[in-house]
Every structure is written in structure tokens, then in C-alpha cells.
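Summary for the lay section of the report: proteins are chains of building blocks that fold into shapes. Here we show the chain for cyclic-guanylate-specific phosphodiesterase and then a coded description of the shape we predicted for it.
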Amino acid sequence: MSATAERPAHILVVDDDPRLLNSLASLLRFRKYRVTEALGGVQACEKLRQLEFDVAMLDLRMPDIDGFGVMTEISRLQPDCGVVVVSGESGFTAVSRALRRGALDYIKKPYDPEELLTTLEAVLHQRSLVRAHAAIQCRLQKSEALHRYIVNSSPDIVFMLDKDGHFCFVNSKIKTVLGYAPDELLGSHFGAILDERDVSRGTHALKGPNISADNPRTLEVRLKARGSRKATRHFEITAFPIDPETWSHQDGTSTGHRDARFYGTARDVTERKEAEAFINFQAYHDLLTRLPNRALFKDRLNLAMTQAKRAGQELAVMFLDLDRFKVVNDTLGHAMGDRLLQAVAQRLDRCLRKGDTLSRFGGDEFTLLLPALNNHEDARRIARKLIEALRAPFQLGEHEVFVGVSIGIAMYPEAGDSLDQLIQNADIAMYHVKARGKDGYRFYSRSMCIDSANRLSLERDLRLALERDELRVFYQPQVCAVSGRTVGLEALVRWQHPEQGLLYPGDFLPLAEETRLISTLSEQVLAKACRDVGVWIRNGHPDLRLAVNLSPVQVEHPRFVESLMEQLEACDFPPQNLEIEITENVIMNDLDQISQKLRKLADFGIRIAIDDFGTGYSSLNYLHRLPIHTLKVDQSFVQGIRSGEDGACIVNAIVAMAHGLKLDIVAEGVENDVQLAYLRSLGCHQVQGFFYGRPAPADAVVGSLQNAPFRATAS
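The coded shape description reads as follows.
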């Protein structure tokens, strides 16, 4: 009797006869129905617009709007409302027309109350079933829409394959990730979207004997994007088998779903793989230059040594240290220094063979592995190529800078049969290049080997020597070749070691260069020499000249000029009495920068001398451009002064050049009167060497200054 358990059915009763209308309404109310009466068709239409009904029971023959007109309104306003006709019309035409218009049943007047109530219950039950079915259909549609939304909104590609690996279903995620429309893949084999490198592994993955719902197949593969829209991407695929006996779509109409045998997901892990690759790259590469780092270099060296041993070949390890990089870094800043390192790495890399490994070892140091060499000449050829590649200037913004490279070479197995030993020995060879003027290469030899314990001990002692004032300054006279008078003194350092006695420069200066103690050492030597010679200048020798050697590290320092001037002022030493000696290599390392510094010093009154002239570049270009005052002829040429020897010809040329450029000239290493006489005949201005005495401490020099002319002593 009720539409639902909570609510009685609402019945609209329509008739134009008030008596019959009231009678039917009373019967229905007695059966607990909710009843609304409408006297005629017009009132019925009004009620339909105001209230909702489960069933309308109406007469057909009414004067204003007949039953068919009311049925039309019901279908328009309340299509879910059932209609039962209660009419005196019994002709076939009227009944047929009513049923075609949507009437669920037809009761002829006069009616039997029980028959009428039974018919009404049947109609209400039918309407209840229709509503229930509609509700279920709605829920199914919503559920299907929800599941479709969930599947298509999944962050993963969801797919189904048949037993042969063809797509039965794929969600729309594949469109956004790989550019394929789902429909175009249906029926295609999934191998069609696999990257060629993973086709074999991917197609065999689903054929494993133990794959099950509890043990799905999981693998990582690369999938191709459609066209060139995106690059190949990495996916983690998880595939489950579908049991045909339990698959609920066996009786479905969708042939593709019915044939499905595998269900799976494909998750895009490209970002994770790229992150892993980046982390791996960070672990084994230098991020600034993109070169292999120390760890990767050692791995490759270890492998190359194993292969070389098996093949009976040689290999080379090169240790490269940039010359003058610190100057650029300190002068132009770390950003420019980083750009320089990147540019250097690119130039070096272009010089290498396929299979060579260039790595950044740290700072401005690089290591190079050259596997599969036939002999030393192969390594020598590459070393020269690297040096030449860095000789051209680097353009850093508005700045043009020059750097060189010092290269130490250790050959396997000659220079060591272990990884650390090869690298260490290449490093030792590189420092020997530094000690001999930089910008070159040397092979490691056993004579270079310095015992680590002794070397560390000597370094410790040298640091203590600087603190304890153990350095001594000796002076070697520079004598006028004509008058024999002492016109200058070259300051030379000695180390009064508390245990080893007096040490000469060759015993400790290379170590001072290597450990960067050379600047402190040179400053101490200059300070002592300025104090000693300053006293002699003030005590009757106003023209006495002090000559000091400066290390490349000092000259290349950004504050070299300022520091030197401050030191002279602190010692109250007249700058016009100072002559600094630098080598040609220092000048040519960075001609523009060095020339600016030398001009400032010359303007300040300081004299500039080129030491060991003839052993380096010997370029007339820089002699003409720079404020050079003195050329010092290297002693190796002076010792060659004998009849017909090449050394004499070189001395002739250097002296003639100096005269032509109006430069003073000092010949080093004069040991006998034959050499002295020859130099006098050439017009050489000044000489120094053992012929006039060995370097001596300050107290021994004071006496010689009083002698005029200077007396030569036996060598």
C-alpha cells in the first residue's frame, strides 16, 4: 500500500462526478493511501503542477480537459507517475488509445473495490520495481564513471594484454605521457612502443614460469614517445596474470576485455632515473668541468693497469698543474677562475685520443691516463700537444689571460706498479718541472724519488727555520770588468741547519717552491739584504747595487709591486740601488701583466735584470717593450769561452745585442783570467764568479768593499 516503507503512496484521483470522486477517494484513504482529489481535468492539471504523485487514477470523459489531455500533462510534468484509467468507456478504441498514451491498466465503471485495489497495488509494485531498476542503473553508471575516472586519472598507465601481448585496454594516461591515443594502440603488440634496446627483455618478461597474482612480473624498460614530441622515457612495469576462470567479463560483449590475460601498470620513473644518474654523475665527476673526478680516474687507472699487464703494454699517468692560475683567481675573482678551468678542460680534452681519461684532481690540478702506449715517445708527443694547446691566451670577458702547464709523467710499469705509486711519482716529476721554470714536462726517474719521511722532516725544519731566523744571506760581488771595483752584490740564501750544517739553495729551494714557502723565504732574504747593504750604502758606498733573485710566485702575486715598495720603505732602502733579477720564462708566462708591474717598479727607480739570459725565450720583442736595464749571461755560455766553441759565439751575440739596446750586461760564472780577458775584449761591462771569490757572509764582504780595485782570489 505504500510507495516506500516510510511513505504511503500519493494518489491523484480525477473525475468530473463529485459523488464518484468522493467515493473513490474515501476507499483509498481507508486503505491508508495519501489522496488528492481533482474535480475535472483543469483542476487535475493544476494539481500536477503543484504536487508530485505516484499514481494518477482518472476518468477519460470530462467536459473541459478529458483524460487523454490529463495524460499528456502527466507525461510532460511527471513522467514517473503511473496512470490507471477508471472510466465508463469500454470500447476497444478508447482502451487501446489509453494504453498507447501510457496507461498501466484500465478499470471499467462500475468497478469492484477489491479489483480496483488489487490493480492499484500491482501498478504501485510495478512502479516500485521500475524505480529500483532505475536507481540501480544510475548507481552502476555512477560506479562505472567513477572507476573510469579513477583509471584514467591514475598517475600510471593502466593496460590489459591478451595472451599474445596485444593491447586489449589502455587508459588515457598514455596520451599525456607518450602521445599515443588509447584507441590506436588497441590490437597492437606492446613491443611496438618498447625502445629497441629493451624489446627482447620486455617481450620475454611475461613468459616467466612463476608469474602469478602473488608474484607479479616487475621490470624497468624504456618506452618510445610518439614522433619526436618527447624523448624516450623510463617506466617501471608491474604485470599480473588474469585467470580466465575467474575473469568476470567472460560473457561480456566487449571482445577485447573478454580476451584479456594480463593486467598491469606502467609508472613513469624518468625523473627518478635522471636523479639517480645525476647522483651517480656527482659521485664520479667534477661538476665544474664535467670531467671525471679522482675516484673515477682511479677506477679507470686500475682497470687500465690490469689490461696493460695482460697485453704486455705500457701506459702513462700525467699529473698536470696550471701555471699562474692562482694569479688569475686572486686578481679577477673565483668566478673568472672557474671559467678559466672550464676553458682549460675543453682545450685539453680536444688533444686526447679516444680511450684516454682526463680528470680534475682538485683545484688547478688535472690527471691524465694514457692507456695502451708503445713507448715514451707516445707520451712525450701528447705532453707537447697539451703544452702547446694552453699557450694561446684565454679570453675571459674583457680580460686576456695566459696560463701554462707543468706536466709530470710516470710510465707503467717503469715508474711503479701500483695505482697510488704512479700518481705520486707523476706528481713528483711535475714539481721538478715547477722547480726548473714551469711550462714543460718531465718523466719520472728514480733520482727524483724523495723519501717521504725525510721530505716531511725537511719541510717541518724549513718552517721552523723561517720562525727561528736560521736563513743566512751570502753575497757574491759583481765587479767592473775594467777597473776591478765592486759595483754590486748579488744576495744568495743559505740555510744554517742546526743538525745538517750549511745547506745550499739546491737543497731546499725546490721544496720551498712546492710548499709555497718561497714567498716568505724571499721576503726574509730581501729584508736581511736591504739592512746589510743599506748600512754599506750609508757608510761611503752610495752607488753600491743590491741584486736579488725573485721567485715566479712572488712576481705573479697580484700585490707584488705594492709589497716590494712597502718592504723597501720599511727598510729605508733607496730603490735606485736595488736590481731585481727575473727569468725570461716568468716574463713570457704573462707578458701583459708582468710588463705593467715592471713599468711601475722602473718608475719607482728599481732596476730590472734578466737572469740566465739565453736559456729561455730570448725574444727581442719583450726586450724592446719592457723596461729592462741589465742582461745576465748564463754561466753555461761563459764556461764555453774557448777557441772555436759555440758558447763563445752565443756570448758574442748577447753582448752585441746588449750594446745595441743600450743595456748593461753581467757575465756569470767567470772562473779564470782567460774568460775575463775575452769578456773585456767584447766590452762586457761587469762580471761575477769564483774568479773574484765565492759567495760570502756580510762580515767577510765588508773588507772587500774597502779594496779598490778588487783583488781576485783563487777559485
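Put simply, here is one thing we learned. Residues 10-135 form a domain with the Rossmann fold fold (CATH 3.40.50.2300).
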